[in-house]
Structure formats: C-alpha cells, structure tokens
Design brief:
The structure is a single chain. This protein is α/β, with parallel strands linked by helices. The protein contains ten helices and seven strands.
Length: about 280
C-alpha cells in the first residue's frame, strides 16, 4: 500500500513543504484550478516525486469528500498539507470566510476521518490571526467546535459584524488555529497529529503582488519594522513543517507555530504598534 501526502493548494509554501516531507510517498496535489495543479506537479515530478493531480474547491463539501476518496484509493493518507486560501486583497468578506474558515474546517473534518495511524497534518494559518484582539471564551469555543456546516451561521461572522476583508481574514486565521486545537483531540483518537503554522510575510508570487499593490506600503513597513528586518522564505516554513510532520515532532499536536520575523512582537510591544 502506498503512503500518500495530500497537498491542497499549489502555492510556493505548500510545494516547499511537500518536497520536505514526501520522499518515497505519492503526492496527491489538489488546487482550485487544474492548470495550477499541473504546473506545480511538473516541478515536483521533475524533482523525482510521484505526483497525481485533482481539482478541489475547499468550500464545497462534495469536492473535499471526493478528494479524500481519491486519496484513499491511492494508499494510506499519512500526510495532509492544507495551504489553500485567499488573502484580504483577493476576495470579499463572504468569500474569505467561506474559503479560509469554512474550507479549513471542512478539510480538517473530512481528512480527520481518513488520516492513517501515525499520520500528521499541517494547516497554514497566518500572523494575522495573532493581531486580532482577544475573543471571549464562548467565541473561541464556537469557532473551534461548531459543526463545519453551521459555522458560517454564527452571529459573530455575519456581514454586519465583520468590519472589512482584513477583519474577515484575521477571524478566519484565528479560527484555523482554534479549530486545529479541537480537531487534534479527534485526530488523536486515530493516532494522528495536526498543527498550524502562522507565517508572516513570506516571499511568494502572491506576496510580490501584495508588495506592489494597494497594501504594499503596509507590507514594507512590517518588514522594515520587525526584529529580523526581512521577509521569510517558503523553505523556512517547510523547515518548521518538517519538524511538525516528522518523528521529531511526535509530541506536538494541537499547536500553532508563529513564524513572522517578530512582526507580531513588534505590533504588540514595539515599533509596529498602532498609533
């Protein structure tokens, strides 16, 4: 029986992680757009990996369940890398909540039903979730444990409660880390682990678009004002993912790893603090 890594999202971070954790495994690479999946699959294939592709809309239960079914037909699902999402400048509030929050809850639920014993997952969240003020205990519980298909009906997620696309993104990414904590309990019953990574500004084609777009000045300010003084690379995120998904991370589950060059530290206690 083959061992399968499921990679959802064909961006630089997901591909870098897959390369680090999938030697000798079959990679099932899924993206919303077939051409994106094919392009990333070609890179992985040329690097010596066995890859097949699929399309998936993570905000569609049928699509996510179909992807899980395909993964199981290939072999034992021992790795799940969820790196799909939309940013605050890419989509309106409702779409961000549907893809980034509901989509992640769906992936965690569906793949938590098929993950193999000894398997592990990593969800790419964001430093943005750490810049949202404290939620109430009740709000935390609701984001973590509300059944996926009821999630978008929560009063706190209605359009009159969410200020703008950045607020929607922050809520979604905070929700991702809370959801993973709750799901880690369930995954643990199958002998599997799952964690989140919350990256800061990582240089990818998307980040380059942001740096030259309407939010570019804010991005540059974050990079210049953070303790490390630079943006990160996809390979640095993959280093952390390799720890979390591999044997050295066997005691780590339900955790979130913030890696942002100190942007969040500077936001709360340094030069990036809101005036």
């Amino acid at each position: 029986m083959e061992s399968v890594t499921v990679l959802i999202g064909s961006g630089s971070i997901g591909v870098a992680i897959a390369r680090r954790v999938s030697a000798g495994k079959h990679i099932l690479l899924a993206d919303l757009r077939q051409e994106n999946a094919d392009a990333a699959a070609a890179v992985l294939s040329n690097a010596g990996f066995e890859v097949s592709t699929a399309t998936v809309d993570v905000s569609s239960r049928r699509a996510v369940e179909s992807l899980a079914k395909k993964a199981v037909s290939i072999g034992d699902v021992t790795g799940v890398i969820h790196a799909a999402g939309v940013s605050p400048s890419q989509a309106p509030v409702a779409a961000i909540l549907k893809v980034d929050l509901y989509g992640t809850a769906l992936v965690l639920e569906v793949f938590g039903n098929v993950i193999a014993r000894g398997g592990s997952g990593v969800v790419i969240a964001s430093q943005s979730g750490h810049r949202l003020g404290a939620l109430t205990d009740e709000q935390n519980r609701l984001l973590a444990t509300t059944p996926a298909d009821q999630l978008l009906s929560l009063p706190m997620l209605q359009l009159d409660q969410v200020r703008d696309t950045l607020h929607a993104y922050q809520l979604s990414k905070r929700g991702n880390t809370l959801r993973v904590m709750a799901e880690a309990v369930r995954w643990g019953k199958r002998g599997a682990r799952v964690n989140t990574i919350s990256p800061g500004i990582i240089i990818t084609p998307l980040a380059k678009d942001e740096l030259t777009g309407p939010r570019g000045e804010g991005y540059r300010h974050m990079i210049e004002g953070c303790p490390v003084g630079r943006a990160g690379t996809s390979d640095e995120v993959a280093n952390v993912a390799a720890l979390l998904m591999g044997p050295d991370g066997a005691f780590i589950t339900g955790s979130d790893f913030l890696m942002d060059g100190g942007v969040t530290a500077a936001y709360w206690f340094g030069e990036l603090a809101p005036k």
